[in-house]
Amino acid sequence: MILMGPPGSGKGTQAAVLAWFQDLRHVSTGDMLRAAVASGSALGKRVEGIMAAGELVPDDVMMEIVKERLEELGEGWVLDGFPRTAEQVAGLVELLDGLGQEVGLVVDLQVPDEEIVRRLAGRVTCGDCGHTTSRDALDPDGGCPDCGGRTLHVRVDDAEETVRRRLDVYRATTGPVAEALGRRYPLRRVEGVGAPDAVAQRIASALEAADQA
Prior knowledge:
This protein is α/β, with parallel strands linked by helices. The protein has helices at 11-22, 29-39, 42-52, 59-73, 86-99, 113-121, 160-174, 177-182, 196-212; strands at 2-4, 25-28, 77-80, 106-110, 123-126, 132-134, 152-153, 187-191. 52% of the residues lie in helices and 14% in strands. The chain has a five-stranded parallel sheet, sandwiched between helices. A hairpin with a 5-residue loop joins β5 and β6. The longest helix has 17 residues, at 196-212. The two termini are 16 Å apart. The relative contact order is 0.18.
C-alpha cells in the first residue's frame, strides 16, 4: 500500500495502524531522513538544511533510500511519504516491476490547509525518545505520553511559516502524484479530518472496496 497526503494529514499515524492490523511493515521516508539528521550521518548533513526550509529532498537520494529498504523487506509494506514527485513515481514503478511486486491500494488523505497548520503548530517532539505528538496528548504533568520525558521541542519543519511553505511545495509538486499513481494502481481518496479511529475506519472501508473490485 501507499499512503499519501499533505504534511500533517495523519499519514504516519494511519500507516502505523495499517501496519499493525494488516501485518505490514511501515516504511516512513520521513522517519528515515529524520533519523539520519539526528545521527549526524553524511546523508543527514546533506538533507538537514533542505528539510528545515520545507523543500523536497532530491529524487536520487529518496530513490536510493526506498530501493534499499524495499529490497530488504520483500512484500508486505505500507509506504508513508513516498513518492512525492513524478520522477519518484516513475522510479518506484520501475523498481516494483523489477522486484515483481504490485501496489494493492493508494490512499490519498484529504485535509484542508488550515487544519494542517493548526495540527502541526500544536505538536511537539520528545527529545528523549523521539516521539511526536500533539500538546493535547501530553501527560497531565506535561510529559511525553510514551516515556514521560520533559525535553519537548517543536520541530523546525513544524514552524508555521515552514508548514505553509511545505504545503505550497506539496500542492505544486506532490498533489499531481496521486493522479499519476492512480493511472497504474487502485486509488481511493479518503477524508482525513476527524478522530484517528474514524479516519482508520474510512481507510479500512476503502481497502475492503479495493479488495472486492
